[in-house]
Amino acid sequence: MSATPDDPLSVPAPDLDPDELLASVESLWGLPGDLTPLHGERDSNFRLGSGALRHLLKVHNPADPEEVLDLQCSALHHLRSVAPELPVPAPVPTRDGRQWVRLTGRDGRPSFAWVLTWLEGRHPEGDELDAAHLREWGRTSARLGRALRGFAHPAAARPQTWDIKRLPQLRPWLPAVAADRRAAIEAVLDRFDEHVAPVLPRLRAQVVHNDLAPTNVLLDDRLDLTGITDFGDMTHTALVCDLAVAAADVLSGRDGALELAHEVVAGYHSVTPLEPAELALVPDLMAGRYAAAVLITAWRTREQGWAPAVDVTAQVQLEAMLSAGLDRLSSRFATPAPHGRSTASLATARARAFGGQQLSYESPLHLVSGAGVVLEAADGRTYVDAYNNVPVLGHSHPAVTRAVSAQLATLNTNSRYLQDAPVELAEELLATLPDRFDRVLLVNSGSEANDLAWRIARHATGATGGIATEWAYHGVTEATFAFSPESWRGADPHAHMRLVPPPPADPSAVLDAARSLEASGHGLAAMLVDGVFTSDGVLGPAHGWTRAAADAVHSAGGLYVADEVQAGHGRTGRMWSFVAGDVPADLVTVGKPMGNGYPVAAVIGPAHLVDPFVRDTDYFSTFGGSTAACAAALAVLRTLDEEGLVEGAATVGAHLLDTLGELASGRSELAAVRGWGLALAVDVVDPTTGRPDADRAARIVERMRERGVLVGRTGRDRASLKIRPPLVFTQEHADLLVAALSVSCDELA
Ligand SMILES: Cc1ncc(COP(=O)(O)O)c(C=O)c1O
Question: How far apart are the C-alpha atoms of 465 and 457, rounded to whole Å?
């Protein structure tokens, strides 16, 4: 771009006779005093007067048309009325009520001049702004942006060279940049063309200040904000450009700028939440700001002999960003911790608010983002997630994000209105199940689903007794707690419950338990069975056992509830574990992976059991089956199918089972290896006694975390490694896991 004749960048600042200027100011504004010149890139700025009577006199660049004065003046009036807490200067009218006047320079060029109230304070210097101040900097930028949200002015649409959106138009100035610096600038320009320019027009846009640089901000001795000045770069552009300018300029020349940028972004985000697409562009836009600074100074140096010759700090910063990788920075910025506290202060605050509620790992894992099977921690370390079964499609799967966001942006209400999503979900779920299932009740969690299944069973059978396996877990509600001996901590206050040993024990215990319930007068309402026996130690497949258990339950008049909260949605390499085992279940409960992390769960059963219950109990759940939850669940079902993840779980699971088996065969501390699809366990034992070794298992889990792989522990002895990754786990991930396990065992040997 070559600057046009009326571009303020190409037109020298006004040249006024100081005595004449002083005389004009005195007569027009009635303000006595002397004039002290101040910094100004293209205008002539002066401090007028001294002590309490100070003002700012701005004589604009002769290239600035009157509408630019009107833009700035109107914006300041707007800000002072909608956000009086923001310290911006007030325009001071002349004695005859004009907001600005036209003055003539020594060279005969006319310029507009106006006077503003003086703001006290000093500019921030060096590294004196710490993380908390930088967060405040981000908040200030956001507050200014919010206050300008309702402001419009025709001059805000004029081309503004400093608008990052216009960076591609500065490309013709590249030859003005020294040859050894050009490649970096060109790289930023190329990325901008490819990644930024196509996205920017789709983002929120408004009039923004566009220049929250240290030279335009005033602070007091405590570093609290006392003034925001210089509205000369205001323009209508993408809102996020304003943040990028604020972050780039306050961090220019600082060590650790890229880490600190997080603070500015988090501060901004806490006032004005940013959309993912905006967050993802912040690094490119910051790099764009630095590139613009280098290009503009280089061009001015060449054209006008302007100093400094090159904006060195901007160039250094830009090169640091390029070597850190703009893609990497972009994915890091895409998920700022909402409050972004340090790991230590977050842990303290959590303990204060949550008391003794458990955290995984001796040194808690502070996670900030996840994609696929990889989780990223606040310290930048990444982990292969082989523990979390909820995100079956992988963390942050775009199909779910898109479906839920679109639904939230359109309508999110309850299931008592006619809507497509809940009906489609029910139809698509039922299509995956045997024909005898024809009713779906949507709830919010696995616990609720099991609680509801239990109520249906009691309603249908009139009995009050239940059966669970010895170390099962089925939920947090009063009713499901009774089915969750894993949580009982030894106490067994449940007279209506009978526990049976899980497979491979003899399933005849189920019939004995049913008879015992009969004898105690409870009778058998339901047995709940987790198809992969997760809490009992991950024991599936056990088709013979589950079929025999279901038969025993039926012979006692009870219902068999297939709890597919862990085992379902493809975990075993089959969509539903009880279908794989041909188990004659009466009710099915699903949850956890159903929404890939968005809360949604369900009870599925035949009409003859569900309809009477619904009729007699006025069943309804406010959030159960909300439109957004259904959108998430539909996206999960469809993506499982489209990406072939159920079949993948079978193949990768078989590979992992084999390789774990090979490893265990050569190690005395690893005993049995079990697995069904991607639900696997490895028993850890004391090599000398061969007994379950919970302590060693715990240390292996910690070591594997150090090696970047997350697994858990399970089983009555807490001595089995629990491996349940997202179904997008590949053979490469599986090999990484086995290698991490092997090294961890070596280290503990
Ligand atoms: C087998 C089984 N059923 C039910 C639940 C309860 O699900 P939620 O935590 O969603 O209430 C769990 C949770 O771990 C589970 O493992």
Answer: 10
Q: Which of 298, 316, 319 is nearest to 188 (CA)?
A: 319
- Give the residue from 599, 602, 627 showing the smallest Cα distance to 437: 602
Given this model, what pLDDT does residue 5 score?
Answer: 38
Radius of gyration (Cα) for the chain, nearest Å? 34
Nearest to 570 by CA among 390, 352, 373: 390
- Please list the residues that pair with 372 across neighbouring strands: 395
For each of the domains in the chain, give its residue range(s) and CATH number, in order of start: 18-117 (3.30.200.20), 131-333 (3.90.1200.10), 398-642 (3.40.640.10), 645-748 (3.90.1150.10)
- Find the residues whose C-beta lies inside 6 A of ligand 1: 445-447, 450, 473-476, 530, 534, 563, 565-566, 591-592
Tell me the C-alpha distance between 711 and 695, whole Å.
Answer: 15
Q: How far apart are CA 277 and CA 489, in angstroms?
A: 47
Q: Yes or no: say if 122 and 129 are a contact pair by the CB < 8 Å rule.
A: no
Ligand 1 mutation pick, 389, 451, 469, 474, max ligand atoms within 8 A of CB: 474
Residue whose tokens read 């059978």:
461
SS3 393: coil
- The answer to whether 637 touches 432, Cβ cutoff 8 Å, is yes
Q: Would you say 303 and 243 are in contact if contact means Cβ atoms under 8 Å apart?
A: no
Q: Which amino acid is at 593?
A: P
Which residue from 406, 427, 451 is spatially nearest to 601, judged by alpha carbons? 451
Q: Which residues pair with 59 in a beta bridge?
A: 44, 113
Ranges of residues in the chain with a pLDDT under 50 are 1-6, 339
Which atom of ligand 1 is nearest the CA belonging to 447?
A: 11
pLDDT tens for residues 645-665?
A: 999 999 999 999 999 999 999
Nearest CA, atom 15, ligand 1: 474
Determine the distance separating the centroid of ligand 1 and the alpha carbon of 486, expressed in angstroms: 12
pLDDT in tens, 8-23: 566 777 888 888 888 9
Q: What is the rounded distance in angstroms from the CA atom of residue 262 to the CA atom of residue 270?
A: 12
Q: Please give the span between the terminal C-alpha atoms of the chain, in angstroms, as a whole number.
A: 67
Both tokens assigned to 105: 């320079």
Could you give the CA distance from residue 452 to residue 441 in angstroms, rounded to a whole number?
9
3 state SS of 236: strand
Q: What angle do CA 514, 553, 481 make, to 5 degrees?
A: 70
pLDDT of residue 3: 45
